[in-house]
Design a protein that fits this description.
By secondary structure, this protein is mostly helical. The protein is built from five helices and no strands.
Length: 155
């Protein structure tokens, strides 16, 4: 079986990232609404207080939150590097969006945008990149010779 063509691979990756973002949003929104409804009698500040109390109520939840916070920091660093590399604007919104929405949602949306930029640089995807898009020298992607690579990666 032959590997898929670059444009098909890009399309599949974008679809996977979009599905991860949608599924993550639905799951996390459902859980958030359920929590708020169950704690509605406490008022807005009471809901936040109850959430923080429940979220850090034992050593297991502390472990999960510490792991999540460290993962968020590592992914934030990755997103900043990749945003510079592929000229993705407003990377701060993806990083701030992680605790506001969910890490799975913000990171999946970032990866979707990143893959769109990669596809545009190859000439196989939507025209989301500017006309002076360059392909980083460290890219593992197979890029047609028509894509200018004279400027090198953004640092």
């Amino acid at each position: 079986m032959r590997p898929p063509e670059p444009h098909e691979r890009d399309r599949r990756l974008r679809l996977m990232y979009a599905l991860c973002a949608a599924a993550g949003f639905l799951v996390m929104a459902t859980m958030a609404v359920t929590f708020v409804v169950r704690n509605a009698d406490a008022g807005p500040w009471g809901v936040m207080r109850n959430f923080l109390r429940d979220a850090t109520g034992n050593l297991a939840s502390d472990f999960v939150y510490a792991d999540l916070a460290l993962t968020w920091a590592a992914l934030g660093a990755f997103m900043v590097v990749e945003a510079r590399r592929w000229r993705i604007r407003h990377v701060w919104a993806y990083i701030v969006g992680a605790p506001a929405l969910a890490l799975v949602v913000s990171f999946s949306v970032f990866m979707y945008v990143r893959q769109s930029r990669i596809a545009a640089a190859r000439g196989t995807g939507p025209a989301t990149a500017t006309s002076d898009t360059t392909v980083p020298a460290t890219s593992h992607a197979t890029v047609p010779a028509t894509v200018p690579a004279s400027k090198g990666p953004q640092r």
